[in-house]
């Protein structure tokens, strides 16, 4: 694990990333890109978790982050606001998922591998820290980055028959 996530017990974040990696690996069973997400409450307890299900559901919005945020909002009991929550995800969120984390008012976004092609937490765009928006989560990248990247590389190699 690289970096310390302010406001969260390091073991809780690391355990959440390990779980997100397990979820990501499982997504391959139904042909989805291996991305997993876990939402932690302000106390570090797991509120929700999900893997990508775009292929499984035939839904372009069924990214792991969106599914986990939806489930966390249902479990959290404060409507849609996830104040104090941490979104832990294996790959840097895209614009949709970064925007969803801002709109959900999560306190932190923690991700594994950078996504230079579509990342919206600093790589290509920086939606989560855009000063024009009314909420800006803290961002920590690089947590178990190599494990996340290796899972994605293996998936795409197999998909391309390499």
How would you portray this structure in words?
It comes from Modestobacter roseus. InterPro entries: CMP_dCMP_dom (IPR002125), Cytidine_deaminase-like (IPR016193), tRNA_aden_deaminase (IPR028883). Homodimer. This protein is α/β, with parallel strands linked by helices. It has a single domain (10-154), classed as 3-Layer(aba) Sandwich (Cytidine Deaminase, domain 2), CATH 3.40.140. It has helices spanning 10-27, 54-57, 64-76, 95-103, 145-160, and strands at residues 36-40, 46-51, 86-91, 108-113, 138-140. Strands 2-1-3-4-5 form a 5-stranded mixed sheet. The radius of gyration is 14 Å and the shape is globular. The N and C termini lie far apart (30 Å). The relative contact order is 0.17.
Topology overview:
Elements lengths: L9 H18 L8 E5 L5 E6 L2 H4 L6 H13 L9 E6 L3 H9 L4 E6 L24 E3 L4 H16 L2
Parallel strand pairs: 3-4, 4-5
Antiparallel strand pairs: 1-2, 1-3
The major beta sheet can be summarized as: 5 strands, mixed
Mean pLDDT: 93
Question: How is the CATH topology named?
Answer: Cytidine Deaminase, domain 2
Structure classification: alpha/beta
Give the strand line-up of the largest sheet.
2-1-3-4-5
Low-confidence stretches: none
Measured between the Cα atoms of the first and last residue, the distance is 30 Å
Architecture, according to CATH?
3-Layer(aba) Sandwich
Kindly provide the name of the CATH class.
Alpha Beta
Helix segment count? 5
In helices, the fraction of residues equals 25-40%
Q: What share of residues are in beta strands?
A: 15-25%
Q: SSE string, helix = H, strand = E?
A: HEEHHEHEEH
């Amino acid at each position: 694990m690289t970096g310390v996530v302010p406001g969260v017990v390091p073991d809780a974040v690391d355990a959440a990333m390990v779980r997100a990696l397990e979820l990501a690996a499982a997504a391959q069973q139904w042909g989805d890109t291996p991305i997993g997400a876990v939402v932690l409450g302000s106390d570090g307890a797991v509120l929700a978790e999900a893997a990508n299900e775009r292929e499984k559901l035939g839904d372009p919005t069924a990214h792991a982050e969106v599914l986990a945020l939806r489930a966390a909002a249902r479990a959290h009991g404060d409507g849609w606001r996830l104040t104090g929550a941490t979104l832990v995800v294996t790959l840097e969120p895209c614009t949709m998922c970064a925007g969803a984390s801002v709109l959900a008012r999560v306190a932190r976004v923690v991700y594994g591998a950078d996504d230079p092609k579509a990342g919206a937490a600093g790589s290509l765009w920086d939606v989560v820290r855009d000063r024009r928006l009314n909420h800006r989560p803290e961002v920590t990248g690089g947590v178990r980055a190599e494990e996340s990247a290796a899972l994605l590389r293996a998936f795409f190699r197999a998909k391309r028959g390499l």
